[in-house]
Prior knowledge:
By secondary structure, the chain is of the alpha/beta class. It is 42% helix and 23% strand. The strands form 4 sheets. It has a 5-stranded mixed sheet, with helices on both faces. A 5-stranded mixed sheet has the order 11-10-9-14-15, sandwiched between helices. A 3-stranded antiparallel sheet has the order 5-6-7. A hairpin with an 8-residue loop joins β6 (82-84) and β7 (93-96).
Amino acid sequence: MTATIIGLDIGGTKTAIVEGTRNARILHKTRHASEAQQGFEPMFARLCAATQEALEGARAAGRTVEALSVSIGGPLDISNGIIYSPPHLPGWDAIPLKQLLSERFGLPVYVEHDGNAGALAEWRFGAGVGVHSLVFLTMGTGLGGGIIVNDRLWRGASDLAGEVGHMRIAPDGPLVYGKRGSWEGYAAGPAFAVQAHAMFPARWSADVGTPEITALALAGDAEALAVVSCVGEWLGRGLAVIADLINPEMIVVGSMGVRLGDLLLDPARRVLAEETLPGTAAVCRVLPAALGDRIGDVAALCAAIEGLHAG
């Protein structure tokens, strides 16, 4: 019987349940709206129902599920699988998710920060195959990351390594991540809309959305391209700090990096090259996530893949 993993990709907007193998081959996937505003209990009930359905489907197909794997935003205690009030998951206050899932389903449960899970996914199965040091950036609604150093995931002393969006990159700016001037305010997904209004207020009001700006940039609109280039430069400033600190072989950018490609990453590469030591810039490639839209599915499996591999 084929041994598989059930992966839970838990977000504030959507939750995906995937079944896959240790080599990240996806066999089945379902998605449902998280409806996070309802709080923990209703959300957990839907999560368990979807997980039970996936387990029953695997068994009916003659497969044996060997573990549950969770990718979820922090802050969290990774080894104990306790979730501590992520901003996008109201009511998830000191939730012992690992214990609850283990008791409910009687399976080993592995929990990982979604930035770390993305780093593992790209390192094992994407752009980072064969490299020994890599930084992954989520660059979606927020700006988080995961760090691979010397072929190991680096979680930090209190599981907070990779919270790069909190770095102060400017003396002032949007109030994001608890302070003004944080990198997340200038280089996460919402930054495209903020910059569009700031740069071209006669064209775009304060309620413009990032999808509109990115769609126009991809269509060749000159002002939208200027906005993307501006965000790319801010992205590059933060990348330069990371590169000088960690000296990685590769920085992989998910979400907006995949959607916009070189329109965003070329300005970032240019600024990184200008601001880092020459030897650092020479070895550091900046690439979009090779897994593309699959990265969330693969990342959902990676907590268990990594745990089972280490075991």
